Amino acid sequence: MSIRNHSVSVSISLLVCFNSHSQVGIFTIGDLPGDNTISHASDVSANGSVVIGNGVPAGGGTASFRWTADVGMIEIPGVPGGSFYESTNLSPSGNYVVGRYTRPGGGGTLSYIWSESAGTVPLGDLSGGAEYTLVSAVSDAGVAVGSSTIGVTSTGARLNRAAIWTMSGGIEALPLPHPNDENSQSTALDILADGRIFGQSASGSWLYSVDDGFEYLPVGSYLQNINSDASFMLGAKSVPGELFPLRATYWTPDTGEVELAPYSPDQNYGAGFMSDDGSIIIGSQQDVGLLVWIDQGSPVLFEDYVRSVGVDLDGWTITSVADISADGTTIVGTAYHEDWFSGGGPPVRLEAFVMTIPAPSTFLAFAAIGGLLSRRHRSIETTYPSSPNPRGRDDTLCHS
To answer: What radius of gyration, in Å, describes the C-alpha atoms of the chain?
Structure first.
């Protein structure tokens, strides 16, 4: 396949100006050429200017795309013989895209990296494994990290090893901090702004660099979202013995691990996405729906929150949220509009959306949110993931 420039079908655009540089609002970004009017966003760059996702191309299956306001949506070309492509992560500036695909002949999952200069490059896999590589993050220098299979465990399961890929060196196994980690599962989850790698193995969660070696982090393995300087982490821990054990949890060096407040005390809840400073957190709660925490305070319903900062959601249904930009100004996901129905069936379109909200520094005192909290008992049905995962690892938070 070759890159194809697809004219963006922004079917509905609802924008409210809040200053001379930005606009609050929501719009959809179209779909890939063909008869299938479906697209899903999966990640957004640090400043919200680049969005990636997946759709259904003219020939069927799935394909990855990259979108910018200037260029529109382009299909990311695949690896010869590969199929069922899924873009999962962007570098902070949006210049690199990584994702996964089914290997030629089927039976294994491998990963790719794309850039405008190099095109689509398969990452390969570590020797001794089962042709399985899952990439978790990519830096602006084009360094990708994740895990790859190196063998099997004593029970016959895949044995995955934390791995790194560079254009010059290809894929390599990362060193591990403890000898006992060698025969256990390990993975690299993210790359910090200074190049350190965040990973996890049997001995704990850690940061690694060639120059400084390993530094253990005093956190549980359920905290798998990390910001650019390791000063804020997010996840969902399970509390043994509780009827509803899942709790959204964050960590900072000053506070240690802290449970975020639930919307309702009687259901599981988790959090999967955050701005880089942790001032905006997005999650969901079983039988409630999507939630937002501002400055780790009490949660409010997602739709109530974005309306309170000026987003006009009239006619829109948000089916899922996939990520929030590091600067906290852009949320991406999947939505449909009430005008997209034909007859009594489901909507005929389902598209990736881009939602712009005020930057955290422009927030007012949120007197309006006090009113939102008084309406806390209005529930929304949701499909809640049993264990929210970090971005790019099947972590989309969904409404049903």
So the answer is: 21
